[in-house]
Deoxyribonuclease
Amino acid sequence: MFCISLFLLFFFNATLSIKICSFNVRSFGEAKRARPEVLDVIVKVISRCDIMLLMEIKDNSNKICPLLIENLNGMRGYQEEYDYVISKRLGRKSYKEQYAFIYRSNVVSVKQTYQYPDIQPGDVDAFSREPFVVWFKSPKTVVKEFVIIPQHTTPETAVREIDELYDVYLDVKQRWKSKNFIFMGDFNADCGYVPKKHWKNIRLRTHSEFVWLIGDKNDTTVRNSTNCAYDRIVIHGEKLINAVVPNSADIIDFQKVFGMTEEQVWPPFWPFWNDEALCLEEKQ
């Protein structure tokens, strides 16, 4: 499932905030890159956010992110500077995808990246696309540093992959000694892929210190015929939890924001889904 999620972190002035988003652009490869009208929408969506996680990048030429950065930095009326980090091509056999983070470099910076190896003894290759973990520095927010762990699960193995994110958390926590974690992405975490009876098997859900900001009743799909919370944001860390702008975790509806029809946002036309975002509070 594909969606843009967001949340806000407060800045020094409570009227400002930093917005963190995730966006699964279905099969984002050469064909979509070559369509100016599609690229224009993607650039506009990214420009709404301070940090954007992009998923399902499928471009062997490695031209997508440089092209997006060129377009973002060249937007008329904008004085922001964007940069990016991108994972290696991930996946089993011939099917590969990449995660990428595009961010405003005058607002946040990347302290470190870590490609989770997915070689835990007794549970090797748990992920179809293992997380590409990024440690961000955010000098203007109450929370100075936070780690984002992205995940795009395979629907049929969503329960196992979401549960395994707890092991990623333990690994990264020990490696970096970080206390603030954001898990976000296309979890496929609802309806037939994660039935209610299976939530008890997901440690990220059963451990109360993890807060789920996109709930089970949210609809992160774009089709009128579906109502599923596939895309999620989960946070951990007392300081981070307290820094989230209340009720800022939300779904950005493409059809409403950009005046698009269901046919336009549904494959094979403009294969997008709604956007999720979260805001963090500025330091007082």
Notes: The chain has one domain: 3-281.
